[in-house]
């Protein structure tokens, strides 16, 4: 197993296989911090308790010669990748007798929606379904042959966290459903449709959590759900102090007399910690937030000179684009 995130441990602790996992290949906390791995988890103690040997890669890209030498020495048949978020080099892939398998999906299914953060983008774009695939890694970007696919719903309360839970449970289900045939070597793999030009989602970074107050209240609800924990959250500023919003919901499209307030204004405090934020097209109820701020009605949040990043869009208005 390759992985270094909470989702890695969720899969390891729930997966039921006919043969034991022999090795966890992960990275230590120093490399996790250096690479800004969202939801990083130090898995050594958990894996050791489960009887799984642990190897800390010297390079997150697995390009250090010592990493290749170690993996080759294991003489493994098959690997699964969950929570790694890096390409696996061809030299490493060649060490596995059967192959290395991971998950990737999108709302349109492969080869559409390859690339980075597809579950986050699905929430941002207001999609309602997600196709996720167990596929065999090749040196390309999410371009390998598909072993099996399942579809799950994106509900109105789903967040980045629940989408990761769903995707991890999908991998558990697909691996367990196909492991016997994979080990026998008689599972037919399906090449991705080469009559369709692949599209790719761009990488998102923590700075991309800056809230665009030009979005309507429904789009802001999706945005906050898309970048909440295990990611760094959506944020705004007030006199140089940052507020990070982790949980919010559309309160109403009726503005309850707050029509004249500018977007980004605290329309009303609801108890000690919750508040209504004036948005274009309605009010947002903010349930969970962090910041060194004393909130009160009338306070106005903004960008304070920062710019919201604009991502390219395709002809349908979505963010998966063809590579030039």
Structural class: alpha/beta
The value of Rg in angstroms is: 22 Å
- Report, as a whole number of angstroms, the end-to-end distance: 33 Å
Side by side, the strands of the main sheet go 9-10-13-12-11
Could you tell me the strand content as a percent range? Answer: 15-25%
Number of strands: 13
Largest sheet composition: 5 strands, antiparallel
Helix content: 10-25%
Uncertain segments are: none
SSE pattern, N- to C-terminal? HEHHEHEHEEHEEHEHEEEEE
Mean pLDDT over the full residue set: 95
Total number of helices = 8
Q: Specify the overall morphology.
A: elongated
Q: If you had to describe this structure to a student in words, what would you say it looks like?
A:
This protein is of the alpha/beta class and 324 residues long. The strands form four sheets. Strands 9-10-13-12-11 form a five-stranded antiparallel beta sheet. Strands 3-4-6-7 form a four-stranded mixed beta sheet. It has a two-stranded parallel ribbon with strand order 1-2. It is built from eight helices and 13 strands. The mean pLDDT is 95. Helix 1 (6-14) crosses helix 7 and helix 6 (118-124) runs antiparallel to helix 8.
